[in-house]
Amino acid sequence: MSQIPVEDQVAMTMNNDEIADATSESNPVDSCSDDFEFFTKIGLTKLQEPSLEHTIIKASFCTGIGDQSELAKKINIVAIHKNSHSSRSREARADSFQVFAKAVADKCGGDANLKYGWYGASRNEICEIVMHGFSWCNTAAGNRYSISLSPAKFAFDSVLSSEADENGLRHVLLCRVILGKQEVLTANSNQFHPTSPEFDSGVDDLSAPRKYIVWSVYMNTHILPSYVISIKTPCLIEGSQGFLEANTIKPNSKWEKKITRKQLIERMKEIAGHQAVAAIVDLFAKKKSLLRGQSLNFQLSIHNFLNKSTRMKVAAAAAAKAKQELQKAVDAEIGGL
């Protein structure tokens, strides 16, 4: 695929994350929106919904969350804002991104492995990223050593790492990413640079990536924030079977029947996930063990108390008997006089 200027490419083919030209025709923008003043005042421009650019970004996001699922149908895209790199610093970062993209392409035989990736965070954090770039202290980054982004086809992962604002809206960044040659990183890795100059970024799985990992040393040269998607979602929880609406889990006839302890645990795993249930069971086991320990200590205390009381009674009885024997001996001695 021939190189096209980064910000002139916004459509995604979800099978391979390739980028096609979607801004060859005029795409009107709306820079005046009172509802999103926090974005427009930092230089973001709101895309008008009939535009081709808006349509492509919306379709890409919907595909990334599974546009045929019932839950996806309840997610409403409220607005899409574009980072036009209007300030000098942002324009410089965009130019720097292209320079590094060319350098990585030259190193990798002509392919910089450019992709789009999703990044979910709070509204304030996204504003900070757009204005000043990524930072190791970004709360949604995962750790201080790297930035993790979700591939185009896993937009839902970024939704879960986002935070609802005071209006109930969540916001996710769509970023252009230079991946180059990737190396596999283990979970919670503290690696903050490639193991050798051969590599340019990290990934959780080369054959089926779920996370693009960009080290902190490259986070503002290899990641370029391009769009902010603002959405309204139902209340979500993560379960072993995927993502469920918390407010749709209601009792039914299955719950009215008596079930075994094993069936209850399996049902809880389906709803809350294996890790959550394991944590609950472990906590319950610890509390039960503690209670058993406390009960045993109490029983031992009673036992010790009873043993002490019994010993005292036995001693008192022996003393009384000895006193009786002594009295008999004294009486006998007196009688013999």
UniProtKB/TrEMBL annotation:
PROSITE patterns: PARP_CATALYTIC. Gene3D superfamilies: 3.90.228.10. One of its GO terms (molecular function) is NAD+ poly-ADP-ribosyltransferase activity. InterPro entries: Poly(ADP-ribose)pol_cat_dom, RCD1/SRO1-5. Residues 27-255 form the PARP catalytic domain. This is Probable inactive poly [ADP-ribose] polymerase SRO2 isoform X5. It comes from Herrania umbratica.
